[in-house]
């Protein structure tokens, strides 16, 4: 399933697939994962990391976040979805509770982008920032802005998010 979702992600990134095709693949992947989870847990398969993902405070959009979640699961990364309209404290709590090493922050509105750096500051205040890698994305977000606010990575779309997070997880594993 992981190679299949990688193909879906690549085709989406290259505008060969669109949201409906990705949603169909995501639904199939999610159904298959539900069937496989008990078997994977008992087989000792090692996860490639854990990510806490959410849509930042003030933003109620979740289609992109949900697509990213499925792509990450397809990449072997365990996803803790903290939902939409998530305040910075909710990201911090998820990192602590689930020991996530990655944080994915989505902002679809320019008016909510200002809330993304709040999450970074909250992670810093909680002495967690050095322990996690932060990936940001969403329609108005750019790579330059991600660098400016101190995020570790930027993902322009769901397909890229899987690749970016897998790379970050591997870097953290080898460090």
The major pleated sheet works out as: 5 strands, parallel
Q: Whole-number radius of gyration?
A: 15 Å
CATH classification class: Alpha Beta
Tally of helical runs: 7
Number of E-state strands = 5
CATH homologous superfamily designation: Cobalamin-binding domain
Overall geometric form: globular
| Count of folded domains | 1
CATH topology: Rossmann fold
Strand content: 5-15%
Mean pLDDT: 88
Helical/strand content category: alpha/beta
Alpha-carbon distance between the two ends: 28 Å
Helical proportion? 40-55%
Poorly predicted ranges: none
CATH architecture: 3-Layer(aba) Sandwich
What are the secondary-structure elements, in order, as H or E? HHEHEHEHEHEH
Widest sheet, order of strands: 2-1-3-4-5
In short:
With 175 residues, the protein is α/β, with parallel strands linked by helices. It has helices spanning 2-13, 19-43, 63-74, 88-98, 116-125, 143-149, 158-174, and strands at 50-55, 78-81, 102-106, 133-137, 153-154. The chain has a single domain, classed as Cobalamin-binding domain (Rossmann fold, 3-Layer(aba) Sandwich).
């Amino acid at each position: 399933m992981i190679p299949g979702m990688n193909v879906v992600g690549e085709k989406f990134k290259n505008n060969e697939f669109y949201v409906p095709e990705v949603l169909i693949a995501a639904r199939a992947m999610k159904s298959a994962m539900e069937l496989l989870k008990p078997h994977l847990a008992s087989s000792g398969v090692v996860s490639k990391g854990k990510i806490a993902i959410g849509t930042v405070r003030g933003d109620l959009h979740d289609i992109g976040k949900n697509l990213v979640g499925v792509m990450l699961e397809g990449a072997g990364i365990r996803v803790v979805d903290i939902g939409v309209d998530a305040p910075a404290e909710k990201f911090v709590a998820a990192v602590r509770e689930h020991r996530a090493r990655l944080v994915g922050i989505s902002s679809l509105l320019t008016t909510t982008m200002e809330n993304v750096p709040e999450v970074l500051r909250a992670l810093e205040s909680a002495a967690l920032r050095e322990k996690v890698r932060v990936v940001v994305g969403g329609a108005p977000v750019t790579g330059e802005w991600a660098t400016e606010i101190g995020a570790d990575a930027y993902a322009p779309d769901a397909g890229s998010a899987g690749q970016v997070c897998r790379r970050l997880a591997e870097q953290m594993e080898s460090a």
